[in-house]
Amino acid sequence: MRRGGAVNRQDPEGALNRHDPEGAIAQAAKECSNWGRWGEDDRLGTVNFLDEAKRREGARLIRRGVSFSLSQRFDIDGPQKGWRRRTNPVHTMLDTGTDAALGNQGLPHGIGGADDVIAMPLQCSTQWDGLGHIFDHGKAWNGRPAEQVVTSDGDLVTGIEHLAAHIAGRAVLLDVGRICGVDGELPDGFAITEEHLTATAAAHGVTVGRGDLVLVRTGQLARVRRDGWGDYAGGPAPGLSFTTASWLHTSEIAAVATDTWGFEVRPNEFEDAFQPLHQVAIPHIGLLIGEMWDFEALAEDCAADGVHEFWLTAAPLPITGAVGSPVNPVAVK
């Protein structure tokens, strides 16, 4: 269904100097810094906002008991094209039914079994970016020297395992694609501003604030499923504008996730830039970012019943020292 008209890829008048990404990043980093907010030893960043009270609030949102997996499948037919050696998952069987039937497993009294292994980059499909994933001028989250945080042994300080028990609470779906797009989708290069986010929240009748897990649907995943992966993994995409850095900071959300590869609008809004919003959001705000999530079934249900808030659990795999993790988020309404 068509909802309004897609707004072009916009730059709020005077908000950005497209020729000076370095200056804009430095200013946003200074204005949005959470360094020291939770002490010098902090390992959780904005997930600190997701406390026990917020989880109780989220649990009270379960009314119907219906659940939705927000994960893409992890298989060889995924979106990766080899950028920075990222590949799709390779699934290999170690033991099969054929081995059991032929008696090759050497097990007693007729028992047999199957076993398998998977090899994949941790950020090849639905995933969280950990706090050790991005640096700014050699500084990691909380101002730590990057070389002392992430080494060849992994993230020694903010490894993704520290978040494993925490990501569960109230979540809100902001279906910007449905509210601001055409036929439920935003075009590639569409920069989602604070105004789009707040207008979408108002249209859904929800508030967004401290400790919330915010899910932003652009509709790009629906489009590539229809038309083919194309450049989904790294190419042009709708996404958050660099100008939303202040909103991400002042709203005090615990985490944000999108249905796109890179969370922020691509091409980026500056000349000669690469993921500048990441450069502020992760090492300075300490924000947990999810990418390549699948909101389609959930979005249809939210549109049908008018309820865009729900319980969400989305624990990363506690892989010691990892700077990202696959995840199977589950929303329950």
TrEMBL record:
Region Disordered, residue ranges: 1-22
What is the taxonomic lineage of the source species? Bacteria, Bacillati, Actinomycetota, Actinomycetes, Kitasatosporales
Q: Which Pfam families does the UniProt record give? A: Cyclase
Q: Which InterPro entries match?
A: KFase/CYL, KFase_sf
Where does the record place Basic and acidic residues bias?
10-22
The protein's name is Cyclase family protein
Q: Specify the superkingdom.
A: Bacteria
Organism of origin: Streptomyces polyasparticus
